[in-house]
User: What shape does this take?
Amino acid sequence: MNYGNQTPTSATDDYNSLVFVIGQVLAQLQTVTLVRVMAVSNDGGVSPVGTVDVQPLVNQMTGNRQPVAHGTIFNVPYFRLQGGGSAVILDPKVGDIGMCAFASRDISAVKTAKGPANPGSFRQFDWADGLYFGGLLNGVPTQYVRFHAGGIDIKAPTITLDGDVHITGETTADGDVTAEGISLHDHVHGGVQSGTSDTGPPV
Assistant: This one.
């Protein structure tokens, strides 16, 4: 038996036939959907923004309501918070859930040129032209920067500083911070003795 998307009223008159045709065309246009990351080109290192392979999580359905899982969409650029040479490097991980938005035109030539380019084809709102934005429906993080009314919390197994970091406000640290190989937790200043200075008061 063959199944389709028509209903008993789909072909009863010209209006219903037109509505059915329009609905079928609109169903081919992709907008936004939830996806799972299947592979990542980057591993968290200092490098240009990479790509992910993703699988849409909302199954396709046959005419008789049987689910059909999506295949993998390859080479999808992902979002990084970056301005010029400054960035927050937080590459996606396999298993992450995020959002994939689909461009209105073919972006393949722009992905290659990283600048203005003609569309690579006449496709529109296609699965192949996805852009990944991560961080939806995921679990509890184990390391993080947390902003809240009481201040900012930073939790990580290790914190590495390269260059100058300026922190204002009252600071507390349950862990340790190492700068140029010097531990802020274990470091002891030497050569300073208690007593009265004979150089006069501070100026």
